[in-house]
Amino acid sequence: MSLLKALAVVSLMICFHCSHAQTEIKYLSGTGADDTVPWDFYCTHGMNSKKWSKINVPSCWEQQGFGEYNYGHVPLDKRLNEQGHYKHVFVAPRAWEGKDIRIVFEGVFTDCEVTLNNQPVGSHQGGFYEFGFDLADHMLYGKQNLLEVKVKKKSDNISVNQAELEADFWNFGGIFRPVYIQVNPKEHIEHVAIDPRADGTIRSDITIKNPHESARLRLMIKDFNRKTLATFIEPVKKGSGTFRSKQKFAHPKLWSPEFPNRYIAEYAILDKGGKVLHTRNVKIGFRTVEVRAQDGIYVNGARVKFKGINAHTFHPDFGRTSSERMSIKTVNLIKDMNMNAVRLSHYPHDKHFMNACDSLGLFVLDELTGWQSPSYDSVIGRKLLRELVKRDVNYASVLFWDNGNEGGWNRAYDHEFAEVDIQKREVLHPWGAFRKTVTSHYIDYNYLSGLNFANRQIFFPTEFLHGLYDGGLGAGLNDYWSKMWTNPLCAGGFLWVLADEMVNRTDTKVLDGDGNHAPDGIVGPYHEKEGSYYTVKEIWSPIFIEDKYIAADFDGMLNIENRFHYTNLADCKLTYRWASFPAASADKRKIIDQGPVPVSHLKPMERTRIKVAMPAGWRQAEVLEIVARDPHGRHIYTWTFPVKSPDEVTNNRTAAIVRQQQAVQYSEIDGDFVFDVGTVKVVIDKASGLLRKVTNKKGMLPLQNGPVSASEHDKVTSVRHTETGGVHRVTVNYEKNRMNVVWSINPGGLVGLDVKYKPSNNIAFCGIDFDLAENEVEGIKWMGNGPYGVWKNRLKGVTFNVWEKKYNKTVTGSAAFIYPEFKGYHSQLYWARINLKQGRSFKVYCKSEDVYLKLFNPEPGPDPANTIVRHSKGDLSFLHGIPAIGNKFSKTDVLGPESAVYQFDAKRVLNDYLILSLVFDFMGNE
Q1: Region 610-633: what's the mean pLDDT?
Q2: What is the DSSP string of 493-519?
Q3: Are 166 and 17 contained in the same domain?
Q4: Which of 194, 290, 604, 648 would you call most buried, defined as having the most Cβ atoms within 10 angstroms of its Cβ?
Q5: Residues 474, 488: one domain?
Q6: Where does the Glycoside hydrolase family 2 immunoglobulin-like beta-sandwich domain start and stop, copy by copy (predicted)?
Q7: Angle at 523 between CA 177 and CA 338, to 5 degrees
């Protein structure tokens, strides 16, 4: 038994023995994926079928080695009709006799029939909803009781199959959420629905079962230290079992994602003598939600923008079975990306996930299941929406109900959400225009200009920038968010999706994403962070610091904007660090100066300028860092600004080599220029001017066949060798004067490469390529932005530092899941050391600003859709322009300016040459 479960049981038993006014909970299963109980199990079809064995409960039976794996796109008539038969024996204490006893199932996929001691107690359809049955009349007290549950993975109800099985997610069968017995006094509070408003008003609907002796209702508002802050007592209104109560709590601390303040509302029914008959505790948050037509979504009077993500309940090893620990971890992961909202796709999630959203602070769109076709029929749909609302009505985080997804709406019961919800939350049709909102999915960038046919409705896409492998999510987000942030009728949006939904199959022992259907995440299947994670974290930072180049006349001033909704920046903590990377140990930073950055009282949506302290030696630094934390200590972001130019850093780090006086030995052999400097030999082809061969004291370096234009294919017109002052130069000219290359072999051993070229108009990339034998590479250490790669439309989320990573073959979202990926584009190159096998290495310094380093071409995942990218042919490239990447549904040409090809129209640019200056150190010294 887990510690969590043990403490819960002890606590409940103490309450039960102390007072009959408490509810007792007895778990028949475990509490989650990390705490299970074995039951007897029989599966009719598929793996390990047609024999009795054991299964852990709760669990998805496929992940226990039973049945058949099905992704939602598999036609129902192509599937096995597997069913599971569960048996479990438990003892009912004699003390339960005469009490109200109910069994509760938090989730069974999908149809189930329940019997106790061979007597039917109830049945249910719908795989993601909490339900229960009365057991008192079927229980054997003081004896063993046999509970049997028969589960059908494929429902007998066609509409349930349409909503839950024929969808774009994995289908898992079984009792996948906890099962417990709830024991109450005969007369008890069966349910409480609460509407706690920002002004302190508390409206409550209290349902009392078997109301005979109850005379008064007592409501106590307590903090989480159990201190009573207010007490209200009123008569119990007779008549129906449910009555309305209204109270006013003075000066509540309000709930929001930034300040998730909560209270405990303790409801008690008292008899005429004041004896407590029963109590029920509910965690509440005071907040008021308004959807103001043609205006926006307001929470506590502030107009909000959703920085949201769609999320499944999913784990590769456990399927849909989760745990409180996993829920808390997931919500913290979302919060750490500076997100403030989550959409439950496409079904209600576990109660502990909802509680984590309440306690840590996330807005929630709570969804009735349905997917791209008419959803539940009106009978089962009405029943399930009531189960959804009844369970989740009191969560402060829930702002909207979603009636299905992408056309999975049954309009017949749209109005019934409000009928059963005391808070009267608005209903959404994700992907549709409905009432005051329009939530179009996968809109093009141009849609954000407001040129649509719902331009007066509040707009927020409940799915956009559909991730696939390394495409989407962060790629394109900067352009989209710039438009969304400044559009007053846009309430933000929800990216698709949080994690790659890849299951660790028990039959094939592989991670399966069903082709390209499931690897859509911003993190990997085990929440491995991909590059887009950090891009989103920067773009959605609630503190916005304007981009800044640090020049010699820098005065320490930075422009800053408060993009919180409720937080004053004076309550956040900003610190600065001036740091350098000494040449002797480039990976160990030297802090030159650090301290706090004063921030005056800056209200949400206001701008100001902050002043960074500038020590006398600030120009000795190589980077300025600004670190921000919110009032709770959560890291918001770390911004980095290079202080020195690449030319300065190159000169500083090569000064000692330049001072060496090893003469260059020159010869011409078999049509090659050959240069020997100490232990280094450089061979350049006389006809093409390309590097043919390099060796040093440790052997050959597998770099050759460069520089070649990454985007053009012009012919060489001349190659000539000259020598001045001991420096040997090879000058290469190309036809139409489109490119000029100068190799410089210097005394001391450094080899310079200066390239001047004219890029064509409308190109995806430009620069120079080299061949580098991939099978010889072990890793790289570099100064620049990292550690993740970038795309033209995903430049945010990387920071300036000295980074190091080993070679890997990760294909984002598809193979290996070792992050950061080795292959790809890296921005703001200053220098790099390529580590090769057998202890060999070479360095390259970049003297030009804004140059990208490409380390081999990143490979696409299987069936890449619009994430396929055209790259240059080189293995090691130095580029002024790099390609953008699309996403699952959109090519780059519809994703905005940052995704467009480069424009180098000579008619519009006076100086139409690009300059690239590199220095190679082939000596292989550390």
Answers
A1: 97
A2: EEES-SB---EE-TTT-SEE-TTTTS-
A3: yes
A4: 194
A5: yes
A6: 188-287
A7: 95
